[in-house]
Amino acid sequence: MRVVMFGYQTWGHRTLRALLDSEHDVVLVVTHPKSEHAYEKIWSDSVADLAAEHGVPVVIRNRLDDEELFERLKEADPDIIVANNWRTWIPPRIYTLPRHGTLNVHDSLLPKYAGFSPLIWALINGEPEVGVTAHMMDEVLDAGDIVRQESVAVEPTDTATDLFHKTVDLIAPVTIGALGLIASGQTEFTPQDRSQATFFHKRAEEDIRIDWSWPAEVLERLVRAQSEPYPAAFTFHRGRRLEILSAVVSTGRYGGTPGRIFYREGDGVVIVAGADARTGRNHGLAVTRVRTDDGRELAAAEYFTSMGGYLTGRP
């Protein structure tokens, strides 16, 4: 099939690579300009550079609402558009333009985790598996019929970085497998159960601020979700920002006020956690490694030279 590809960052790069290695003919690539947004500078393999290396025409756009682009798309005469990690609205006149419509590739197990940063949100929420879905685009974001979907298990120590590497390897088989079904003439696919749909916003600074009223189990997953190269989860100690680089749920149960620097346990220092921590039934978060506001990385036992005091959400 003649394919126009919309994509950005490493997700788009992997999709384009799969298309270039397939039997399909990539006739035009549309991608976003480079961004200085913290999350968009991560996994930032260039779709434009890969297309140029293979002699595929490239259009750079933030949005898809101009007549010049629409004319370019009509001239490309695509059988299908394939999109992955396109960050802005795709108008109906564009996603319905190709003979077979538009196939969107999304790094979650739709209908759950539509929208942004699905792997991070899924990890924080303790999901047992994550994956990649190829679905036909319609008027509702990430809501069209599922053509192909594959999943991988989330292991107890997985970070968001681990999950990225697991799921990015699913892009090629999911995308090319879905295109094979479409090219074969199949037109009936699996409708999404909209009663199970969830939609998540872009992550920002506020989303990585530690709230010590959260249970330790959730905070431990937050720390893993904000693994390098993502911005680390942070708190404040004595008015200065302190990043939590690694932590585990404590073995013992600790009561008191959330955020209290309480007890040395193993290689960590336990911080009281949970809205009902006063009951003494909660596990704490045993912080094992931190980074100070001047960039020093230290074992928690080295940083916290004495117990007592509090970690807080604000200076």
UniProtKB/TrEMBL annotation:
Gene3D superfamilies: 3.40.50.12230. Keywords: Transferase. Residues 1-169 form the Formyl transferase N-terminal domain. InterPro entries: Formyl_trans_C (IPR005793), Formyl_transf_N (IPR002376), Formyl_transf_N_sf (IPR036477), Formyl_transferase-like_C_sf (IPR011034). The keyword Flavoprotein does not apply. One of its GO terms (molecular function) is methionyl-tRNA formyltransferase activity. One of its GO terms (cellular component) is cytosol. Residues 205-306 form the Formyl transferase C-terminal domain. It holds the Pfam family Formyl_trans_N. The keyword Ligase does not apply. This is Methionyl-tRNA formyltransferase. The lineage of its organism: Bacteria, Bacillati, Actinomycetota, Actinomycetes, Kitasatosporales.
